[in-house]
Amino acid sequence: MRIILLLFCLVCSFSISANIGDMPKEQQLAMKYMEALTDHDYSTLRRFYSRDTIFFDKTANTTYTGGRQIIGFLQRAHEGVLEYRLNIEHMFNTGSLVVIIGSYRLRGPGDQFGKPGKIIDLAVPGVTTLKFDNNTERLIEQMDLMDYQTMSDQLESQ
């Protein structure tokens, strides 16, 4: 389970062609959140979370609730990471709900994936939805949907 969650949470950098200032406020907030997540900036992430924030990986059916649980998970998952990146292919919002469609790339020690002594390299398509409270600018819920079959296929070939 940790292996599955590690992939989508450990985002190290992302690319997007639009200027952040040209985006709707909700998308700007999403980009700031993703940048903090990408940079493993736990101090900034704490400001996005409340004790009611939900981090839900629907595909893996795993949930963390509250800033303390979420940060704890992220710190464990970030341990030993070599490279993580999110390439955003499309982003849109409807009100305070922001949808990010992209590809998550992970390079890391194979030990975490049952491949000791190897460096693994994965690129997995995924969708992340972020719902914000517009008044407080805190994250209400993050839901990730990842193509774990693609991840499994890539792991098998390495």
Automatic annotation (TrEMBL):
Coiled coil spans: none
Record domain SnoaL-like: where: 32-132
Gene3D superfamilies recorded: 3.10.450.50
Record keywords, A-Z: Signal
Domain of life: Bacteria
Keyword Signal: yes
Protein transport is among the record's keywords: no
Extent of the signal sequence: 1-18
Name this polypeptide is given: SnoaL-like domain-containing protein
Organism for this UniProt entry: Shewanella litoralis
